[in-house]
Amino acid sequence: VIAHAHSQSAHLLHVLHAVQQHFHHIPDEAVAEVAVQLDLPFGQVDGVVDFYSFFHRSPRGRYDILFSSCTSCGDRNLMAKLCELLGVAPDQTRADGLVSIAETSCIGMCDHGAAMLVNGVPLAQIDAPIVTHIAKLVEAEAPLVTWPAEWFKVEDNVRKSGLLLGDDFAPGQGLRAMLARGADATLEEIVLSGLRGRGGAGFSTGTKWKLCREAQGEAHYVVCNADEGEPGTFKDRMLLRSHADRVFEGMTLCAFLIGAERGMLYLRGEYRHLLLHLQAVLARRRELSLLGENILGQPGFNFDIDIVVGAGAYICGEESALIESLEGKRGVPRVRPPFPVTHGYLGQPTVVNNVETFIAAASIALHCSPWFAAVGSGKSAGSKLLSISGDCAKPGIYEYPFGVSVRQILEDCGALDTQAVQVGGPSGSLIGASEFDRKLGFEDLSTGGSFMVFGAGRDMLSVIGNFAHFFAHESCGFCTPCRVGTTLLKNGVDKIAAGRGTQYDLDEMRRMAALVKRRSHCGLGQTAANPVLDGLQRFPQVFEKRLAQRDFVPFFDPDAALEQARQITRRDDAKAHLE
Ligand code: SF4
C-alpha cells in the first residue's frame, strides 16, 4: 500500500491517507514502515499522524460517519439519534467494527441544511426519518451506491452571479491572452486591476507575484489554498466543482509570470469527494496542452499541478502552516518574516493564493484590468463571493461588487427579523442590527466569504459558544496564549451558559480575550477571541441575563475543600478555616 501510494505522489499526507483507507486506521507498524520507505524520521511521521484529526490510531468503522458541528450545517440531535439507533457512543467505533460516528468542524455544506460525511461522501438535507433509514442501511451493510441517490445530491446553489460567475470563460482563453500580451504586460494588468487576495487579508495579488518573481531561488512554486475551513464557508466547493478549469488556469498563468514549473492545490480534507473530478480536469488540461511541457506550444513553458488532500486541520488554511503541511510536517505556522514569496515551499519563493483569487486572475488576464477595476469601491476592486447560510430563505452563493451593504444582502437572501450577522466566519466580525448599513470591503467589513445569518429566535450565547469551542479545538497548540487562552474562553462561555457565571467571569473573559488577540503567534490566535469580544461588546445582554450573581462566586466551597486536609493534619482550629 505504501509503495503504491508513494509511486503516485511523494506527499506524506497522500501516503498516510492511502494507508488509512486500506486499514481503516494507521497502525503503529505502518507509521514505522512509512518512515522507512519515505526516508523520513520516525518522529516526523508519528507527529503528523497525531496532529491531523482525520488520521486515526485506532480502527474506524467500515462506515465512518462524520457530523458537522457548525451552527449552519450541524445538528447534534440527529447525531445523538444515530448513535442511539446504532448503539455506538460518539467518537467511538462499535465493537464489531461496523460503524464509527464522530463530530467534526464545518464540512462546507451550510447551504444544504443538516449534513454529514459517510466515508468522505457528503449527505445533504438529512432529518430524523433519513437518520432512521441510514441506521437500517448501515446495519444491513448496504453499499453506499445502493443508498437513495437524492441524499447525495449536492447543488451549487448559485443565487446571484456577478463579474466572475457571470464570465463565460473557456479553458485556455486566459493563457492565450497572456501569451499574446507577454509576461510583463500581463503582470502589470494584474497589478492595475487592484486584485487583492480573497482570503480576507487582502494583500495585493500583483505585488505578491512580482515579489515572488524577483526572489532568488532554485525553483519557484505556485500553491492554491483550497483549504477553506472557516465555518459557514462553502464557495470553494462550488468553484472547484464548476470552475476548476479557471482555478488551474489562474495557477498556470501565475506559474508563467513568476517562473514556476510546479504547483500544488491543497484541498481541504472535507472536500476529498471532489478529488476524482479535479484529477479529471487536470488530465483534460494536459490533453489540451494547457498543462505539461511547452504549454500551448510556448517553448519552455512547463508547468504541472499536484493535488494534496488535507486531513482536518483548520490551521492549514494559514499559508505558512499549509506549506509545512505540504512538506509533510505538522501544520504549525512559521515565524514570519521571511514570507513565502521569498522562503516558501522547501524554502523557495512561493505564491500562495486561494481559489477565488486564482479565478479572478485568470479572468483579468483575459479581459484586462479595467474590466475588473471598474467594479467595486474605493480600495476594494472587483467582486466578492459570499457563502450565505443560517436563518434566511435562500442560502447559497452570492456574488456582489465590493461596497454592498449588509442590509442589501439580508434582503436578497430572504432574511427576516435578523438580530446578528457573522461576517467572515468565526474569525470575522459579529455585528448587530444597528450596523447593517456597513459595507463589505477591505476598508470596512473584510471577509473571506462566510456570511452567517442569525434570526431573532437564535440563542446568541450558544452561537458564540459554538465559535469558542471551534477555536479551542482548532488551536494547533504551538503557542501558550492561543492554546490555553482559547480553552479558557470556551470554558468561560460554557460557565455563563450553564448559569454559573458572574461579573468576575465576564471581566476575566475580556482580559483573556485581549491577551489571546495580542499575544498569539499567528492569525488564528489573533482572531480566535473575536466572537467573544464582539459578543461582549455588541450583545452584552445575552451574557448578563445568564449571570448567577454580580459578585465573584467560586466554582466550589474552598473551606469545605480543606476539610480533608484538616483531617489529615488533625487540626480544626479557627486558623485552619478560611473566613
Ligand atoms: Fe497555533 Fe494558535 Fe499559536 Fe497559531 S496562535 S501558532 S494556531 S497555537
CATH architecture of the largest domain: 3-Layer(aba) Sandwich
* Average pLDDT rating: 95
Shape: globular
User: Structural class of the secondary structure composition?
Assistant: alpha/beta
Small ligands present: iron/sulfur cluster
- Unreliably modeled segments: none
CATH topology assignment of the largest domain: Rossmann fold
How many domains? The number is 5
Measured between the Cα atoms of the first and last residue, the distance is: 67 Å
What would you give as the CATH superfamily of the largest domain?
NADH-ubiquinone oxidoreductase 51kDa subunit
What proportion of the residues is helical, as a percent range?
40-55%
**Share of β-strand residues:** 5-15%
- What is the tally of helical segments? 24
Strand line-up in the sheet with most strands? 6-14-13-17-15-16
Please describe the biggest sheet, giving its number of strands, its sense, and whether it closes into a barrel.
6 strands, mixed
Count every beta strand, where a strand is a DSSP E run of 2 or more residues. 17
CATH class of the largest domain: Alpha Beta
Q: What would you report as the Rg, rounded to the nearest angstrom?
A: 25 Å
How does this model look, in words?
With 579 residues, this protein is α/β, with parallel strands linked by helices. The protein folds into 5 domains: 2-51, no CATH class; 63-155, Glutaredoxin, CATH 3.40.30; 159-374, Rossmann fold (3-Layer(aba) Sandwich), CATH 3.40.50; 381-458, Ubiquitin-like (UB roll), CATH 3.10.20.600; 462-579, de novo design (two linked rop proteins) (Up-down Bundle). The protein is built from 24 helices and 17 strands. The strands form 4 sheets. It has a 6-stranded mixed sheet. It has a 5-stranded mixed sheet with strand order 2-3-1-4-5, with helices on one face. Helix 5 (76-86) runs parallel beside helix 6 (128-139), helix 8 (183-193) runs antiparallel to helix 9 and helix 18 runs antiparallel to helix 19 (503-519). The longest helix has 18 residues, at 480-497. Iron/sulfur cluster is lined by residues 315, 333, 475-479, 482-483, 520-522, 524-525.
